[in-house]
Design brief:
By secondary structure, the chain is an alpha+beta fold. It is 22% helix and 41% strand. It contains 6 helices and 16 strands. The longest helix is centred in the last third of the chain and has 24 residues, at 256-279.
């Protein structure tokens, strides 16, 4: 990450770019495929506490040349030979600046599997499917702006021990009498009413978490980050600069400890479900819960997406293709006059219908 590596073609010497869906770099000029050697480096989990200690003891920094966007706060690398460009996350024009940060280098990544022409086709299909979209959207959302980006993430493994106090609720039924009026007469009837007896409960439970994923960048809106899930993490390969050739790589903005705090929040629903099962009964209440997090390890990984950030009437909208699965999601503007026209048409149809009905 200090200096961008160059990958010359073994046939004609031109610069190579990673070819999605393969383990090779492709020459844009002669079409030669240059295989990426399979790494013998194991993708190991890294001890969390030990890594934190190394960072606190002034681990040597990496001089990373990045582009920083004042609009969305995103930071990413630039392709070889470029000193300016558009932010892939918000579309604003930006210029490269040299920053020095203490960075943990990624150990593994998921290579691009979806090619750019497939991503552009999905983008076009998505655009044509939008109802009430402004007519100018096709022009504003230029498919030429679709960029391949690696986004950073942390994965955490952790064993937890949780001590709790709470209450176990057990249902029972009581027969109650009540008076109702039937045929003008007061009649006494009975009904079964469910009630709950509560008993004190306490105990200890254990949970194990594997590859709990936390995206390590904040440049995308939260609703889109929530949709970037379901990655095929068993297909991770050892990090190699060759996989980044021709693509942009974002640097992480959520630090390792901050990411683990997010991971702990993701663990909570699982831990509470385990506690509820341990309490048993028909209902459960948790009064106190204290969790120890042990045997913490992590990986710093890169995940591939195709992204278009387009601006319309001063707002930024995003379109994203998961470059592993091909799943599509995005944000879109609405045309106020198209919606108003439809509402007016519906109202007119209703009024016409009422007028015809009144004339009968």
């Amino acid at each position: 990450m200090n200096e961008p590596k160059q990958f010359p073609c073994k046939h004609c010497g031109a610069m190579l770019e990673f070819e999605p869906g393969t383990r090779a770099l492709k020459c844009r000029y002669c079409g030669t495929l240059n295989d990426i050697p399979e790494s013998q480096i194991a993708i190991d989990e890294i001890d969390y506490a030990q890594q934190l200690l190394q960072l606190q003891n002034a681990q040597p920094t990496l001089d990373a040349v990045v582009i920083h966007c004042d609009g969305c706060g995103g930071e990413s690398t630039l392709p070889e030979g470029k000193a300016s460009g558009d932010c892939p996350f918000c579309g604003r024009a930006i210029v490269a600046t040299s920053l020095t940060r203490t960075l943990i280098k990624p150990k593994s990544l998921l290579p691009f599997a979806i090619k750019s022409d497939v991503a552009r086709s999905k983008f076009d299909q998505w655009l044509t499917s939008l109802w009430f979209a402004p007519n100018q959207l096709k022009r504003h959302a230029d498919t030429g702006g679709l960029k391949g980006v690696y986004i950073p993430a942390w994965t955490y493994d952790c064993n937890t021990i949780s001590d709790y106090t709470g209450q176990r609720g057990e249902h029972y039924w009581e027969t109650q009498s009540y008076v109702s009026t039937i045929n003008g007469k007061s009649v006494t009837q009975t009904r079964q009413v469910r009630k709950t007896r509560w008993y004190a409960a306490a105990g200890r439970v254990w949970d194990q978490f594997d590859d709990l994923l936390v995206l390590a960048a904040t440049s995308l809106p939260q609703d889109l980050r929530n949709k970037l899930q379901g990655w095929d993490l068993p297909a991770l390969v050892a990090y190699d600069d060759a996989y980044l050739s021709g693509f942009v790589a974002e640097t992480y903005q959520i630090e390792l400890p901050e990411g683990f705090e997010i991971a702990k929040q993701l663990m909570q629903p699982v831990i509470r479900n385990t506690v509820n099962r341990d309490i048993g009964g028909d209902e459960q209440r948790i009064d106190s819960l204290h969790t120890q997090h042990n045997d913490i390890t992590f990986k710093h990984i890169l995940l591939p997406i195709w992204i278009s950030a387009y601006r319309y009437q001063g707002r930024t909208f995003h379109f994203i293709v998961n470059a592993r699965t091909g799943s599509v999601f995005g944000q879109r503007p609405y045309s106020a006059w198209k919606i108003a026209f439809l509402v007016t048409a519906i109202v007119m149809m209703i009024l016409i219908g009422l007028a015809i009905y009144a004339m009968r």
